[in-house]
Amino acid sequence: xxxxxxxxxxxxxxxxxxxxxxxxxxxxxxxxxxxxxxxxxxxxxxxxxxxxxxxxxxxxxxxxxxxxxxxxxxxxxxxxxxxxxxxxxxxxxxxxxxxxxxxxxxxxxxxxxxxxxxxxxxxxxxxxxxxxxxxxxxxxxxxxxxxxxxxxxxxxxxxxxxxxxxxxxxxxxxxxxxxxxxxxxxxxxxxxxxxxxxxxxxxxxxxxxxxxxxxxxxxxxxxxxxxxxxxxxxxxxxxxxxxxxxxxxxxxxxxxxxxxxxxxxxxxxxxxxxxxxxxxx
Length: 281
Ligand SMILES: [Zn+2]
Ligand SMILES: [Zn+2]
Ligand SMILES: [Zn+2]
Prior knowledge:
The protein has helices at residues 27-33, 176-182; strands spanning 2-5, 12-15, 18-24, 38-44, 48-52, 57-63, 66-71, 87-91, 106-107, 149-153, 160-164, 169-173, 187-193, 197-201, 206-210, 218-222, 231-233, 238-242, 257-258. By secondary structure, it is mainly β. The strands form six sheets. The protein has a five-stranded mixed β-sheet with strand order 17-18-13-12-19. Strands 8-4-3-9 form a four-stranded mixed β-sheet. It has a three-stranded antiparallel β-sheet with strand order 1-2-5, with no helix packed on it.
């Protein structure tokens, strides 16, 4: 059995053994996780148990049969247990240990962001792989093209924003907090200045979670769909923006990987970007 939890720890579960592990680049996963891709494990329904916090789980119905559950306190994505399917889908980023399995393919590779290439040798499928009963196709919103403006919105669309100009930096973070917050292999965050940000709608629909004991770490997310949204950090003047929520392409991808000392055991870095064990000097 493998244990997992959301960022705040209210929702806990155990699952296993697992039958499959895949990366998904669809726009819904990217928005719901706030990450550049999601990684899911599947287990038989009777191999999955909630240990605590099931009453904190809110499920946003994204489309057709699509269910997108998250923790109402911290916004982490939590496992999906669709009725009548006999399967549980577990976001790998929330696991505490090594599931003893590795991802075998990329799905919805055609939806990935143009500036975030896939660099490992795993098979890539444009949509669902053959034989995968995924139900309906998944939306892929056209990239916004307002010159000089970077636009983003949450999965349900209640919250939307734009930044003028470019981010000061973009980086992948592998720390355990980011992995649990985004329920993914790592976070990819863009750092903008506060004055670059305009909320175009729904600022009042943001829920904010501050991690107890952390200086600045937290997660802001949509109350209705759970998607992470830009988080204004007053003490630094930066807006930490989950890149999975962006509709506009970025001109430049991440400068590298930070906190690789905390990297998930099941994820291998295969690009050639610089890596830092913790923070860059
Ligand atoms: Zn939580
Ligand atoms: Zn997906
Ligand atoms: Zn939303």
